[in-house]
Amino acid sequence: MKISLGYIAGVLAGGLCYFMPARAQQQPASITVNLKQETGDMSPVWAWFGHDEPNYTYMKDGRKLLTELAALSPGPVHLRVHNLLTTGDGEAALKWGSTNAYTEDANGKPVYDWHLVDSIFDTYIKRGIKPYAQIGFMPQALSTHPEPYRHHWKPGDDYNDIYTGWAYPPKDYNKWEELIYQWVKHEVARYGQKEVESWYWEIWNEPNISYWKGTMQEFFKMYDYAAHGLKRALPTAKIGGPEIAGGSSKSGMKFLRAFIEHCIADTNYATGKIGTPLEVLSFHAKGQPTLIDGRVRMNMAPQLRDIMEGFKIVASYPQTKNLPIVIGESDPEGCAACGMATNPQNAYRNGTMYSSYTAASFAREYQLADSLGVNFMGAVSWSFEFENQPWFYGFRDLATNGVDKPVLNVFRMFGMMKGKRVKVIADEMHPLQTVIDSGLSGKGTDIGALAAKDKKEATVMIWNYHDDDIQNAGKTVNVTLNDIPATAASITQYRIDDKHSNSYEVWKKMGSPQKPTEQQIKQLEQAGQLQTIGKPVKLQVKAGRLNTAINLPRQGVALLVVRW
């Protein structure tokens, strides 16, 4: 394929955006919401976020984004980050971070330093955010393979370059246990027992791949000693794992089952007794976008299969079937720091395709949890922000240089949905099993909805999603709400599309500046906020039924807030 200079410029500016001419008038899509048919709680499973680089947390744009995340959720937001125990000077870099929490003096005596960990957790606690506290990675002084330790990975480099000395087992498990004991003891002293009891702690990251350079049994030993140290410091603390990669992969399923069975029935390496504390179970789920003739094509089927298989494994053991589950990373693909210049299949990230994918995939996660009867507590979007990076570089992030991207507005929409989820009938929403089995590629658009009801209010999130990154004028969607106990109601429509809640499109119209002026930045910040279409509209409700219609562009997301 011949690649033009215009195509390359488009990639670097966040192009890869194809337009399809509007087709002839089509039959409208239909969505019916039955408010009396409850399907489950509108639990904030989406209010979980994470990233590799913990030192971004307390930087200017990191603090700004955390303030926005805390504001969008009716309940606590949870944050999961890597490298909370990694050795280093606190310099932030892609896929790297450090706190220098543990070093040793010349005689091999432990030296604990919590000031950088405090900077991270203080930033959370000040905003009411809860750490989903990751115990990892291995301090250099404890690593069985301490050199090389600090990596300097950048986009385009071999991903395997990141797996250095921090990924190895401890050379002294007693010192490892004492480190965790001292850490948790410090947190209780700093924030109080009640606060730390409200956190969840988890061990490591993706031990079934190169994030763990030991054996499976060595991981279990490392977990046992860490859990013992945590429980010595705070017996009521909650801990779990194993944060495996790919819940549907052979290695992932094998590891998850072995981990559960170890915690249930094996001899604990630290105590010599049967069983190990286990209060939360976690695994990861990723989609798989590709590039087809220069155009991004998404695929959420692998992500949903990972979730389904992980749910099934947890539900298959009587001892774990009711435990809370956190999908520790739940994303359209695997590498947040791989920008679209080096990985053009990731060009979905700046625009509305990321938004509509997020809406359509989270709705299916609720469906999966309902169908399997599991205790689904959270799904971590491994998306945060990257300091001092090019504008709209195509990282998987929620904001760029302090400006919110369209995807963040989906989470603002989720934050407005409260109460009970209710039944939705959507004639152009593809069945859950179809999407799990073969994805949506080749199946046309997916126009669906997620709905909830609260006191005197209903919320309906509607998306017009397609696996292929092609935009068009969209389609009319007829929406019916049944069982409204009033004779009139007002509707406010919030919207994410090419003209609303979209800083990216505004940035492109500015000429894609890498050094925007102060005035341009203010304009971009405003464009990054969630916007409405017009003012609230009051409509009649006849026999409990309200009818309305919207035109929703492809890859657009709408939230209807109905009050009576």
From TrEMBL:
The keyword Zinc does not apply. Residues 1-24 form the signal peptide. Residues 100-528 form the Glycosyl hydrolases family 39 N-terminal catalytic domain. Pfam families: Glyco_hydro_39. Keywords: Glycosidase, Hydrolase, Signal. It comes from the Bacteria. SUPFAM superfamilies: (Trans)glycosidases (SSF51445), Glycosyl hydrolase domain (SSF51011). PANTHER family: ALPHA-L-IDURONIDASE. Belongs to the glycosyl hydrolase 39 family. This is Beta-xylosidase. It comes from Mucilaginibacter dorajii.
